[in-house]
Design brief:
Belongs to the FAD-binding oxidoreductase/transferase type 4 family. This protein has 469 residues and is α+β, with helices and mostly antiparallel strands. Helices cover 36% and strands 21% of the residues. The longest helix has 21 residues. The radius of gyration is 23 Å and the shape is globular.
Length: 469
């Protein structure tokens, strides 16, 4: 597409509908806006950055962009990992972080309505204070709710509670031409035509800009306990997961981790993990409304793990122990990035739960075959694995062909195992080619048709998810 460059006339108009102290151009644009958390996928400078504060402002900005064929990249906190919120075609970067009001916590209907820029951690704090629970639990708590919705973020609790899509009930959306659309609401059931709301979830800002979101809440569980379970071998660890999921228990989370990654996190955080006696661990959590209820569940799982080769079962039933374990788990990504300052690439595949062991072992073999340090961890309970290839001391000439081959092999393996190329990070611009290989031409044609219906000028986050009509 041939896009129009942003001119001073455009900037003056954008200031007139917003405010001078919320419009940045040229040297005023902070370098943070040129990339997300994966700088390895390149830096792209927007021509102008606008911090919107209302749906009406977003609408006026989009009307101007649509009329003048200027690309617009919506952005939350910029914590993505696939280049989904970077302006690869320049144009306008539309930041929603100042749209950070919690509009309503409806305790009668168990619903919350927020502006898209509300941080996940702030929303969790607000609903918890009212004895309510927002189950989606992506690892990056400084992400915005809007960003979570646009990538259909999952997190650690998906095995029991599902992902962000399962909690979105309504949205206020600004379309590419500036029209404001309201879809869904506080209702539980809705069979009223095509679900535009569900099309928007996971669309990465390519179909519309969500400015307000209504989500379902639950009563807050009164008790929670975690189990840290070291295993004698990697195979025993991973192969125990299907047995846990087939048991009568329903864990809140089932996380897989290895000693090397734990050691990276220890160094990053400057504190010790409770146990490093093994190479492979499961971290399980359980919640409920009474200690007795949870004890019955986790005792059965503990005995099951021991029968499958677990070396021990450490019970985390105090806040101090819980914090020690889960803060380490939450630091894995930053710890791995810190251990390889020259760069890394990441793979966010999801496979059927009974194929997790196959994929984990396959990646361990790639580590040996290519001589590239590979670290992996993830949500073993829902089949979503995060795999990181670390550049370390490799030269650019060594690194590039190796990492490209490894990534291709991993995505091919995920497809072979009936999986998908992304479980929760999205496609962005970095994984577009892999998406096409995974879903095939007929599906890509449908996705491109949907994109064209919502955004015929291809000005909304162009180059992401689908990069052509």
């Amino acid at each position: 597409m041939a896009y129009q460059k942003v001119t001073q006339k455009d900037i003056d108009f954008l200031i007139s509908i917003t405010a001078a102290d919320r419009v940045y151009s040229g040297d005023q644009i902070n370098d943070d806006f040129t990339h997300d958390e994966m700088q390895e996928y390149g830096k792209f400078m927007p021509e102008v950055v606008i911090e919107a504060i209302s749906t009406e402002e977003v609408s006026q900005i989009m009307k101007h962009a649509h009329a003048n064929n200027i690309p617009v990249t919506p952005r939350g906190s910029g914590t993505g990992l696939c280049g989904g919120a970077v302006a690869i075609h320049g144009g306008i970067m539309l930041s929603l972080t100042k749209m950070n009001k919690i509009i309503e916590i409806d305790e009668e209907n168990l619903m919350g309505t927020v502006q898209a820029g509300v941080l996940l951690m702030e929303f969790i704090k607000a609903v918890t204070e009212k004895g309510l629970f927002y189950p989606p639990d992506p690892g990056e708590k400084s992400a915005t709710i809007g960003g979570n919705v646009m990538t259909n973020a999952g997190g650690m609790r998906a095995v029991k509670y599902g992902v962000t899509r399962d909690y979105v009930r309504g949205m206020k959306i600004v379309l590419a031409n500036g029209e404001i659309l309201e879809t869904g609401g506080k209702v539980i059931k809705n069979s009223s035509g095509y679900s535009i709301k569900d099309m928007m979830v996971g669309s990465e800002g390519t179909l519309g800009i969500a400015t307000e979101i209504t989500v379902r809440l639950l009563p807050l569980p009164k008790k929670a306990v975690s189990l840290l379970v070291p295993f004698g071998t990697l195979d025993q660890c991973i192969e125990t997961v299907p047995h846990i999921l087939r048991s009568r228990s329903t864990p809140t989370a089932v996380e897989f981790m290895q000693r090397e990654t734990i050691e990276n996190a220890e160094e990053h955080l400057g504190k010790q993990f409770p146990d490093k006696s093994s190479d492979a661990y499961l971290l399980l959590s359980f919640d409920g409304n009474s200690t007795e209820e949870i004890e019955g569940i986790y005792d059965e799982v503990a005995q099951l793990c021991l029968s499958k080769g677990a070396l021990d079962v450490f019970i985390s039933n105090t806040q101090e122990r819980h914090e020690s374990i889960w803060s380490t788990r939450g630091a894995f990504l930053e710890a791995i990035k810190g251990s390889t300052p020259e760069g890394l690439d990441e793979c966010d595949v999801v496979v059927p739960k009974n194929r997790v062991a196959d994929f984990v072992k396959f990646c361990a073999e790639l580590n040996k075959e290519y001589g590239v340090r590979i670290r992996q961890f993830g949500h073993a309970g829902d089949g979503n694995l995060h795999v990181y290839c670390c550049k370390d001391q490799l030269s650019d000439d060594e690194w590039k062909p190796k990492v490209e081959a490894i990534m291709q092999r991993m995505y091919d393996k995920a497809i072979e195992l009936e999986g998908q190329v992304s479980g929760e990070h999205g496609i962005g611009h970095a994984k577009v080619g892999f998406l096409g290989e995974s879903v095939g031409a007929p599906v890509m044609n449908i996705l491109e048709g949907v994109k064209k219906a919502f955004d015929p000028k291809n000005i909304l986050n162009p180059g992401k998810v689908v990069n052509r009509f």
